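Side project, low priority. Logging it here so it doesn't get lost.
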Amino acid sequence: MLPVKFMPVIIGLAALAMTAGQIPARGENDVASIVRGQELAQLLCQRCHAIAGPGPGKEEKSPPFSTLIAKLTLEGVADQLLEGLALGHDPMPRWEFSEQQVEDLLIYIDSVSSEN
């Protein structure tokens, strides 16, 4: 979990993005999910993927999170997360997520998507 001192920054950035039309307005629960999803992405994904912005990631075959929805649709990403995340690139580890973690990651991925 991010230290409490980062919460005002995260909330401020989310508010700035919403006012700039970058992401649709979100409720408090969505903002909390974005934060939890970002924490999971930082912990498990950023060693290979660009988890915010266009990339590139550290691994050539690891798509940036900002392009996942355009490539797979939100439902496709959800299916992959729920099925143990075998997204077709090596060296992708097999992660198993709870339904809450999947929801948090999806909301985070949607928030950084180039589709927004």
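Brief comment: Helices lie at 7-19, 28-44, 65-82, 99-112.
Revisit when time allows.
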